[in-house]
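Practice problem 4.
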């Protein structure tokens, strides 16, 4: 009896694993269907848009974009916009290239619009170059628009605080100039090319040079276009992202007489130098005069000292018998006559020699 029950229960035990596998398969299929429905609900409209416009974006590529952290809306709509404009994968606009541009931080809609604008304007521009320009930080759409519609750069830049470019002609008259530079973007030199600041600096330098080369300011006022021609001849757009089409003188005014001001300043400086030199010579002369006065006083002291020795010499001559009394009186008479004549003439020295005691 027990063996029969065991024999009857054995098939049930053998059938149990198969039912479990069936239920597990059913649950797995349901989950797959549910997951597929979720993805279809999320990406169905994008897939339909791509399918209707023959943009060739599959549902699996849309799902893969989500896993790669790529916004599928931007990719699909940019590709649809390009295909509607007549561009295709032959022009480099593939799903993979657009994803790579997005992951690199590029502005995909801007790149696609630039390609469309260049295609409509018959401007040669490949997707690779447009993507490189975009990743370099330049606005590729604005560059294409400036190639079609040239832009005008004011010179000098009003934001720099200077309103005019000032130059001085050979006759010393200052001229204040405002210019407008019309440029067109050169797409081949856009990557690595200089921008507006370089153009403004070069044009300003050329204008100053052209004014400085003129003999008089009247020549510049008479023919302002001579400045433009002279500046354009220098090839100022070399190494820049632009091609200069024209340089127009918008306004030119006469400033100060710089030459006269410089001459006046120079004359004032020369005057100060001359005054300093004159003061130096005067001080030297005063010092020399004081030195000579001291020298005169020194010599006078020597004369007084020498005169003081005369009576002593006379007394000594008396003692040694070298001078007689008559000789002494004759000398005194001669001195008295000399003093009298000097007094009559008004130039005499009334100082009398001291009497010397006779021996």
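Answer key:
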């Amino acid at each position: 009896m027990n063996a029969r029950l065991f024999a009857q229960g054995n098939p049930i035990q053998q059938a149990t694993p198969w039912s479990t596998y069936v239920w597990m398969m059913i649950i797995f299929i349901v989950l797959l269907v549910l997951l597929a429905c979720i993805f279809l609900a999320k990406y169905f409209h994008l897939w339909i848009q791509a399918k209707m416009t023959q943009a060739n974006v599959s549902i699996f590529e849309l799902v893969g974009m989500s896993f790669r952290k790529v916004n599928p809306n931007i990719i699909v709509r940019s590709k649809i916009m390009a295909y509607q404009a007549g561009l295709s994968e032959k022009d480099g606009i593939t799903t993979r290239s657009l994803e790579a541009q997005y992951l690199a931080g590029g502005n995909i809609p801007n790149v696609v619009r630039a390609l469309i604008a260049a295609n409509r304007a018959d401007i040669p521009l490949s997707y690779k170059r447009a993507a490189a320009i975009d990743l370099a930080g330049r606005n590729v759409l604005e560059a294409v628009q400036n190639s079609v519609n040239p832009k005008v750069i004011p010179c000098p830049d009003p934001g720099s605080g200077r309103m005019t470019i000032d130059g001085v002609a050979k006759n010393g008259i200052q001229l204040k100039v405002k210019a407008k530079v019309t440029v067109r973007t050169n797409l081949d030199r856009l990557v690595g090319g200089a921008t507006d600041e370089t153009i403004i600096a070069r044009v300003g330098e050329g204008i100053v040079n052209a004014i400085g080369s003129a003999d008089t300011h009247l020549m510049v006022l008479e023919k302002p276009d001579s400045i433009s021609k002279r500046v354009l001849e220098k090839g100022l757009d070399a190494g820049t992202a632009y091609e200069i089409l024209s340089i127009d003188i918008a306004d030119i005014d006469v400033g100060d007489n710089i030459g006269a001001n410089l001459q006046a300043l120079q004359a004032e400086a020369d005057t100060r130098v001359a005054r300093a030199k004159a003061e130096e010579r005067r001080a030297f002369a005063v010092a020399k005069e004081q030195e000579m006065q001291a020298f005169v006083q020194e010599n006078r002291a020597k004369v007084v000292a020498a005169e003081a020795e005369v009576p002593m010499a006379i007394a000594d001559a008396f003692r040694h018998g070298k001078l007689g009394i008559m000789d002494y009186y004759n000398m005194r008479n001669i001195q008295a006559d000399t003093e009298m004549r000097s007094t009559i003439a008004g130039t005499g020295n009334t100082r009398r020699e001291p009497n010397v005691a006779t021996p």
